[in-house]
Structure formats: structure tokens, C-alpha cells
Amino acid sequence: MNVLLAQPRGFCAGVARAVDIAEQALERFGAPVYVYHEIVHNGHVVRDLATRGAIFVDDIADIPEGAVTVFSAHGVAKSVVEEASRRHLQVIDATCPLVTKVHLQADRYSQRGYTIIVVGHAGHEEVEGTRGSVSGPVHVVGTIEEIDALSIPASTPVAYVTQTTLSLDDTRELIAALRDRFPDIVGPGLDDICYATQNRQRAVQQLAKRVDLVIVVGARNSSNTNRLQEVAADHGVPARLIEHADEIELIWLDGVEHVGVTAGASTPEHLVQGVCQKLQRLGAGSIRELPGIVETLRFRLPEALRQTA
What we know:
Layout: E1 2-5, H1 13-29, E2 33-36, H2 43-51, E3 54-57, E4 68-71, H3 78-86, E5 90-93, H4 97-111, E6 115-119, H5 125-131, E7 138-141, H6 144-148, E8 158-162, H7 168-181, H8 195-208, E9 213-217, H9 223-234, E10 239-242, E11 258-263, H10 269-281, E12 287-289, H11 303-308
Parallel strand pairs: 1-11, 1-12, 2-3, 2-4, 4-5, 6-7, 6-8, 9-10, 9-11
């Protein structure tokens, strides 16, 4: 049995920046540092930061007044920013710059009088942050049926934005359905889906052509990780989503000659290497990384950390 590694995989620039922000905040300001929501969707990362003094909360009211507070990579609604200001929190914003771009885009459309449609998963932190970034009407759709059920008058100017971590193929289909329903709708096409999400999905498409099984390493509550599993399955290859190597079951490998391994954008590389080591203990021979895009993009740290450097 041989193992092929997708390239690229694992941490993207937005996740690397968010984790770096949390680590530097702990180092410079000392524990505790409060983090609003999971900094990224990966339990291993969250638990590691918690052991260093990060306290994760889902309600801004649970943070003591004046405390150092980090907003997660997924972004927050304007109401959260306003409440943080009222509580005099020392906010360090770790929102991915590509998510911030979507917020600004939605707000611009809203200020021009458009009703906003967010293509994404209702309840996801990123989508809720985008929904809360505009003051006008907002609808969230994630299926064709939800688009068909929209009760928006035909004369209403409509614009859409998308969650950054969606499946390219699924989003393309949903945008086409929106254009059929609202011929004058405006929006960014697939441009809001982040480069890292696209790169990882395309790498899995190439990986699926060469393997009998794809193992996706990442958190089950991670949108982009779930999409990787779906992309592999859509290309006719069995795909298993695991959070760590101990979840691998020997029966999965029965009759398998080539195993593909990839990881979601919030998965640290050491978890991927742990999976490779487990596969070797189960009989894997060579481990080889496929050629692919080498991502070199890096995002700057927030001004609050640059000032204290």
C-alpha cells in the first residue's frame, strides 16, 4: 500500500494568521486571553491554546470588562463589535482578510439598496458574521429548495455574496439558480470562495484520480474540511473524515493499494504526519507528496500586535 499526499493541504494563510495572533496575544499580554468562538475549527488547535491560557467563549457578555479579546478567523457581526466596545474590551481582530472582504462587499451592496442573499450554511459562524455585517434585509440559502422558497418581490434589487469555504461545484449550481430566479441579480461569481479552499478542492480532485481511498484530516465542524470529503466522494472515491490518526480503521484499507491523504485548511501538519505514521504501522510502504500549488501568501498581523512588537 502506498500513500499519496495532496498538495496543498492543511493550514491556509488566514488560519495561520489567526493562530499566530492568539499565540502572540498570550505571549505579549499574558493569560488569560479571551477568544470569541473557536479561533479556527480544529479541536487540537483550540485545546493547545487553552492549555496556554486562552479562554474560549460563545457569548461576548462572558468576557470581563476591559479584557484582551481575540475575534476568531470566521468574523463577527457589527453588533458583537459594538458590544465589545461598550465593554471596553481590548480587541485583536483575527478575522481572515478574505472574510472581511465579503463583509465589506455585502455592506456596500446593502447601502446601495440591495436585498442581500448569503450563499452558505445557516448557523455557521462565518455566515452569521456576514449576515450581521449589514443593516438591511438578508437571506441565507444553501440549497436549490431554499432559493425557490425565497419570498422576495420580483421588483426588488438583489445582490449575493458567498461563504468562503463552500464547494466550487455546489456554489456554481446555486449561483446559476439565483440568476434564473433573479435575472438582474449582482454578485461576485465564485470570487468569494477563498483561494485556499479552491486550491485544496482541486488538489483532492487530482488525488482522487490516483487512489482507492481518500483520508481527510480535520474537524467535523469545519466547513472546508467537509467539502474536501464531499469532493473526493463526488469523484467516485470512498472518503473518510478523521480528526486524528487513532480513528483509522483497518477494515478501510482492505484491498486498498493507494491511499490519498489531505487536510482541511484549519488542520495542523503534525496531525497529517501522525496519520502517515499510523498508515506505515498498518503496512504502508512509500509516502509521496503529489506536485501541486505551493502557497506563499501571508497576511499581516493586526495593528494592535504590530504596535506592541
